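Continuing the batch. This is chain 6 of the set; chains 1 through 5 are on the previous pages. Same settings as before, nothing changed between runs. Recording input and output for traceability.
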Amino acid sequence: MMESQSCLYIISSLLDEFSSKERLIGEFILSNPSAAVYPTLQELADTIGVSESALFRFVKKIGYDGYRSFRIALATETVEPPKAVYDTEDEATDASSAIRTVFDTNIAALEHIKNTLDRDSFEEAVRSIIGASRVYLFGLGGSGLIAQDAYHKFLRTGIHCSAPGDFHLQLMQASQLSPDETVLIVSHSGSNKDALALAEGAKERGATLIGMTSNSNAPLCKMADILLLSEQCPPPCVREAFSTRITQLSIIDALYLSIMNHLGEEGRQSITRMREAISKRRLRGDTSIA
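Output for chain 6:
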């Protein structure tokens, strides 16, 4: 297939040659092209009413290597460039609208997660972190920044934790886990192959796996012993949602606060030791906290 060919044109031109299921998929995409861009393979298959394998075969039949390349091609035709800039359709034409767009989107995302985050799973995650002999914090790309922030927070509590930044180091660490340890894997999509390899490693070693993702249909959700779901807003939000980062950072902060409440005096002593160590490196008169 030539990359210059229109995805919608290809589907339209082949419509009479499709089987009944293929025609059902094709007609849905032609009627709702924008709605077919954002869902995962499973989400779109469920919406149309076909199996994932049927949808995947359809994508291959019209000339694409996989579902991802199909979505990119379809998005090129259906998504206006400004809509892919941030998590909303609103255009930021000046400083005021940019500020309003970002803050309104993030506030809405935080309100959504505050109301939907599963309290039982959250409390179970806190207990697992506190009870573990050691906690490992894994993430890749932007999700790796969330894992590093968790390390920065949890280190204050006195909990033994580690957050290797390199994927190979994370993979090596996953191979050495034990059943009395806990792993928190952060993955925005929940379907990144490297993140899933880390999850598989944790499961094979019997460690408790906490998954944090924004995709409720992701493979990571099925693998996790404890799930912290930071569901993002529905389409037309872009999949690399910036607001997801804000909500996941907030979940980490809430975990930290809850852990400190559980630890009580032990946690306060850890904070005191940390502050004393850092204060020795401060310039005189600087009373801020790291």
